[in-house]
Fold this protein.
Amino acid sequence: MSIPPLMTFQEDFLSGKLITKEYVHFSEIDCPELDIWIGRVVRSISLEFLHEILFTILSELLVNGCKANGKRVFFSEQGLDLWDEKDYARGISLYKEEFGHHRKRVFSSLEKSNYSISLSTMYKEDFIEFRVRNNAKILPEEKNRIVRRVQASTKYRNINDAYRESVDNEESSGLGIVLIHILLRNSGIPNQFFELVTGEDYTEVIIRIPKQLIPKDSQSRIKDLLIREVNSLPPLPAQINKLITIAKKKDVTFQEIATEAEKDPAIAAEIIKIANSPLFGVHKSIVSVVEGVKRIGLKNLESIFLALGAKKILNSRYAKQVLVWTHSFKTSMYVKFLLEEKRKHFQLLESATIAALLHDLGRMVLLSLDLSQVNQIRVLRSDDNTEISEWVEEYTVGTTHSEIGYLISDKWHFPEEILDVIRFHHKPWQCKSRNNILCQIIYLADILSNIGKGKGNYFTVEPEVLDYFEIHSEKEFREMQDRFKVKFEEHREEYQNLFI
């Protein structure tokens, strides 16, 4: 699959242009670029949680289209009439064997035929549309089979339930349609967003992903609750603001800052703890505030004070703050490992590691939604699932933790570089300021630190970011992640209580 440059792809997609890829057949070698293609679509519209689900659905549909076209070529080669019931019954088991054990031979025959399949997507007002089409008329038996699978899917809660029952004794694609409906339903997308369209010379499956799962007025009501929650946050503590003001003064001395910090024993203790943390490398332990201020450095003090102020307010208010700080510190350390290893933008090392500490502030608000609000979301989605993933919740609410975090950090007058990181750490290509590179660094470190939680892999990373950091293969990416994981484990005890 030939993929255009990132900005061209996103501009075309978001402007409503139809983006299409043609295949003669679809196989494993096409999967990596399909993964990249889907990643660009979902990242454009903040539906990252659907990446793997859409990949599974679309690859399944493409394979099924390939099988259907291959069946037509095979029957012709065998001198069998596809539309004759007796010939169909005699030939289908032979074709199942052929496709299962001699797929390359089927693909070779397809390359000499006029059959093809296509995948297209379009950005519309209320939904994102995906179409998988093959240029062959569907057989009555094939259509009946799909209808039966759609009906059968309603009784299965998950794919394991479907496997326990034999849903297809003749063709291996029987579970595909069931799988698609289960995946869509478990993502909160009801069955009416799946459509089969047929004509005299084509068969097409349409998947529509709605931009919202609950009514606009309900979504707006929940979003307003979140905004009111942000507006209700108190200003940063007066002593923190005073320290930030002093740190910004020209010709300020380390001793002047230390003397002011020592007026609040809790702040003084935090400065010493942070200065001794892995954030600032492996050093001899320091015990005085002035030494801590020197080690942190004047250019980093404002951000550190902001982090301490955010910690004081958020930790007292939200129950899920431990989860967020733990991930943020891990991301911060991965930023450090990345820049040390790649030796790119090494001058940004300290500012990037500190910005990474603050990149996920908005998650505390979303993860700590009042229980009544969460229940309201479940009722509105008709969702019986007791656990809602973070991205699904954002999808439902109609806002993201990046947007909520930006509102918080803007309220507290964070500097531009941290505002940009909070707002664009999942979409660095949308940052048009000088902080674009900073956002790219934290974007990549965030994904690396989240691997293992089902939140990313080599193919979910924007290829242009991988190229920039000279990561040229999945093997290189995995090896880097393994190295970082080992290095991080060495500091686990040190980070455990840093911001908790």
Observations:
- The beta strands are 19-23, 117-123, 127-134, 194-198, 203-210.
- The radius of gyration is 27 Å.
